[in-house]
Amino acid sequence: MPPRRTTSGMPAPGAVPDSGSIIRIDHLTKIFPEKSGAVTAVDDVSFEVQKGEIFGLLGPNGAGKSTIIRILTTLLPPTSGTAFVGDFDVTSEPDRIRRIIGVCPQNITLDLELSAYDNLDFYGNLLGIDPGILDHRIMELLETIGLAGRANAPVATFSGGMRRKLEIVRAFMHKPLILFLDEPTIGLDPESRREVWQQVERLNTEETTIILTTHYMDEAEKYCDRIAFMDNGRLVALDTTENLRRSLPSGDLIEIGIPGRAEGLVAALRADGRITSVESTETAVHITASNGSRFLPDLLEIFETFGVSPTSIAIRSPSLEDVFLYLAARDHAARGTGREEGGGSL
Amino acid sequence: MIRGAIAIFRRDFKKFAGNPFVLVFTLFMPVIYLIIFGNAMGGTISHIPIGVAQEDGSFAETPLFVSATADLLHYQPETEKPRTFDVTVFSSESSAKAALNAGNVMAVVIFPSSVSNDQAVRLYVDSSEYLVPSLIESGVRAVLAARAAPNPVYVNRMYGDIEYIQFFGVGVIVLAIFMTTMLGGGIALIRDRENGIIEGYLVTPVQRASIILGIIASGTIKAFLAGCIIFLVDIYIAGIIVDSIGTFLLILLVIFITSIGITSVVVSFASRFSAQQEYASSLAFLNLVLFMTSGAFYTVLGMPFWLRWITVINPEYYAVHALRSLILKGEGHLIGMDLVALSIFSCIAIAAGIISFRRTLE
After folding, report:
1. Pick the CATH number of B48-157 from 3.30.750, 3.40.50, 2.30.30, 1.10.10
2. Residue A237 forms beta bridges with which residues?
3. pLDDT reported for residue B189
4. What ipTM was estimated for this complex?
């Protein structure tokens, strides 16, 4: 796990006056009027992003992640509620926000027929980078992603991972205070994903706050300081990965392979107060218990008493996906609604 | 094999039937083609403006002059059709020729002082138009023959004999400008929007107006280069002669202003369409209307009144007229009105482009 920097309680220099927050969203709602009836893409969402953190927006397709990103990057006006980026209101001062943000969209928008250098040069001019330092800045960025030697090769000749890294540094050319990454690793192989994440972390060390959306729970878990779960336009949870895990009451998941059904064993397990739940099939028993690894020796003793010898043992912490499914279900239960269109498993 | 073919057929047909815009245009286009093509081409040429004058030095109006003028005014080779000539009577040969040079009339007939076989009736004709010069000639000869005047007719084709390819080649310059921006500029813009590239610009500090001006500028240069290439091809293939560097520069200026105007119109259309197919159908239609009524194929004098009305607001008409005045006649002084019209049109088009692009973004 990469080292995490604590951001709470840090004095906030520069653009943000009070506290350490760099983005503040308050009761934000976005409703799209459609022919078939209004669609609430973002439903009364409030949260803050701390300066310097890597903030992950997670949720299934249609959860409202991209809509929030589009509002924060001034592409969409909110229907109601407020959103501040830096010191600036998205509705009244979009021009000033555009000067302090960098955006890397979900689909590649590089010009494939132009060279890596030309792509960066073009955006450097759009971003208003001092022409005197532009050339140096381009080469510096190409150096960091290992493409300096292919500066003049057309982007069409680059692999997916190289293109994505190039696009990320393109969004970072003007050293923005906040970098938005929409699905930065989508469609990449594991090796490229790792490299992209390294790049993101490197940029994060340069005092840049990073907000990203992703479908990949494991990646979010590994690299994000804090995670906001969204589902059906609502903010379901927002916390550090550790705290989110703890919010799952069932604890660790233990799976023990068995040679055949053992009803007596299952009944005894259910009676044990340390076990949260037990499910049994012909070949395995699924147990959830808090502090699973410590409990495992005791568990095996119970098995022994019933004369069942395990064929396999697997123990794992609940994944972020398990946490998400639990929280989403709880949210729906609280609101008395079923999962509608737009929801779905991750 | 059959099953696969049917599957592909059904897919294509469902998509076709599911898009009413393309459906309507597919049916609508041939009808419009019929109406516009049918009326713009091959109509009866009428109301040709010509001038008549008595030869300098003859003080009294000769009977031939009086009767021939009346005959020309009522000259009507086919009954039931509008009369061929609009005749203006000039008080002197020089004022008539001045009107011809200014482009107010397309021909001038100078009548001699007497009816005799050694005094020629002189016909000065603007030969840069297609079909019109020969119509004037035959009209004048027919009138004189009807009056049994023995005078020979001396014909002066002011710009020499102009082939149809030369006449049409000038129009193709304008067509090239339109096609280049339609295919190069407009479709590229729609594709960029589809791929989210334009949205990428919008999250940078760059101004909305800068984006559209940049797009118009690059489209204009592409269209300008295309127009210039066709112009050079015209010189080579159609054997056009440009007589002075001033005329050459004026030609480039007209091509340039036309490129700005047409590119801006195309961009303002392209920014309102989200689908390439719908855009292409609409632009093909626009191209048809503008090009057919520009006078590039066939003289505007042959069009019915309602079609001529379109030419008044058609920038391509002014572009074709200006280029023809410069390339075929070498008369730079005739294009003042065209330049004014093209400039006004370009300004409106740029403004429309900016407005429609901004509206699309919001």
Report:
1. 3.40.50
2. A229
3. 87
4. 0.73
